[in-house]
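Example with several molecule types.
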Amino acid sequence: MKYVLIRLLRSVLTLVIVVTVVFLLMRMMPIEGYFGASFDKLDEAQKTAKLENLGLLDPWYIQLKNFYNDLIKGDFGESITYRPKVAITKILGEKLITSLRFGMASLGISLVVGLSLGVLMARYKGKFWDKLGTCYVVGANAVPVVIYYLLIQVFFTQIFNLPLLYDKTDPKSWILPVFCLSLVNIAYYAMWIRRYMVDELNKDYVRLARAKGLKNKEIMIRHVMRNAFVPMAQYLPASILYTVSGSIYVESLFSIPGTGGLLVTAIQRQDNTLVQALVLLYSSIGIIGLMLGDILMATFDPRIKLGNEGGSR
Amino acid sequence: MTSKKIINNMADNIDPSLFEFADYDQSKGELTGYSNYSFWRSTVQVFMKNKVAVALLVLIACVVLFTLVQPYLPGQKSPTQIYNNPETNLQFRNVQPNNEFWFGTNSIGQDLWARIWSGTRTSLFIGVAVGLFEAVVGITIGALWGYVRKLDAIITEIYNVWDNIPTTVVLIILTYIMKPSIPTIIFAMCMTGWLQMARFVRNLIIIIRDREYNLASRCLGTPTSRIITKNLLPYLVSVIMLRMALAIPAAIGNEVFLSYIGMGLPVDIPSLGNLINEGRALMMDPSQRYQLFFPAAVISVVTISFYVIGNVFADSADPRNHV
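Resulting structure tokens for the full complex:
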């Protein structure tokens, strides 16, 4: 418990530094971004007036102070350029839920398919299924994802007569985006569970279990699988949380109104408040996810002790 | 007198073949416990056993060689020149692959064949440069981070902050300070890429830094720099080579990504990312899909080859897999 508290405190410190650095970096950018296409039409006085209106002409430390004052009150502010005068929480709320739905659907599929594939590959190591699976894993990992997303979009829409773009009312339009999102994740889970299981299979307890006369299936599922899953448990909470950040490729290709690419757009259009809110959100997710992962790992495997006590280092 | 005779007799009876140099026989040598084990020779031997990897190595060597000599071959077109049809005096827009333009032309009449090889050259150069830089910086910082305890807390904190700053912010600011060009994009990728390598090396070094042989070195007063270079890094050769080999496909993928979000190289420099983007714009027209397929095929071949070669090489550089 004490360990979690200390870690949380340190994380808050990291978050403050990250947000401050991003805040200052955003102020270093050229001012064109605040105006978008209308930059050339406005004269100097209009530009100054707009900047002053946004509070961007104050010295940076006053801007920073105002930002933190609002933040402590729980106010993320309003969007500047992305959707002017709309509260950040409102913009994010809808988008986060859309991305979360797609992310969770694909994560669920990937876990089931990926883990089964990995177990199958470990079980028949060096045989046909293992080789076929390895080809898939290599292809999915090595080739830039956008290439096969594009090919899927081109061909699968024709072959299976599926809708090209996402449509809220059409459940069929979910199939391709979820399929695209799952492809990479399945390869990831299959690769790691196979590697950990092959490591575990060479250990003595497996030999003992076999000598006791346990069935192969039982050894695989009850003993090997459980131990092999421990290192993967660390990344599970983070990957669940990260689904809210969406996928920039899939969401732009299928025109899904999610969060993928929102950060890039916000930075390009210099929507400072939106960027700060997103950075704060994503960084907290990363830090919290890692911590939950450590805790989950320690519950899966009681031998793992968190904190500084014990251990030789 | 007799004794001398005996000695002469002995000299006559000695079999001269006993005094010839014996050929070295590895299998017999191993029986007596002696081995002429050489790390690199065993690595190459194990690597050569994997037929797929060897085939891909030959393939990628041919591709790299070809991209380098392609502009000097006779009859090659310029990747940036726009070609006009002499009869109609119009540009050769979106011409299907034919004898004149082997891979067809793009939407403004440039030769796709020349552009693809020029783009492969650019992307491979970016990949290799980023891979090398990441290795040098990542290993240096990672080794210090893992081995020098006093630095651990500081570098961990720097890592946490740097890792959480969105890459896009860094990129936009860099392209604002520097012009969008090949050096800028290499620099930008290096600025964010070394982190992963450094953390990876650090974790490995933490695992082996307190093994007995390092403890012994430290007790004998070996300076830190020598422990790192002589005791720790040779241990990591195989995994570091793996990361470097994987950094090349990763950098190519990053370049594609940056072009996709509109922050890659300027459009007048052909690169695989730019070509994919041009192909994407036309992919809904079935007759124009060749503009997407050709660059996609080249990217797939290059990235898969590097990925497989890297993995197989790392396996064969691991002494546990040696004979």
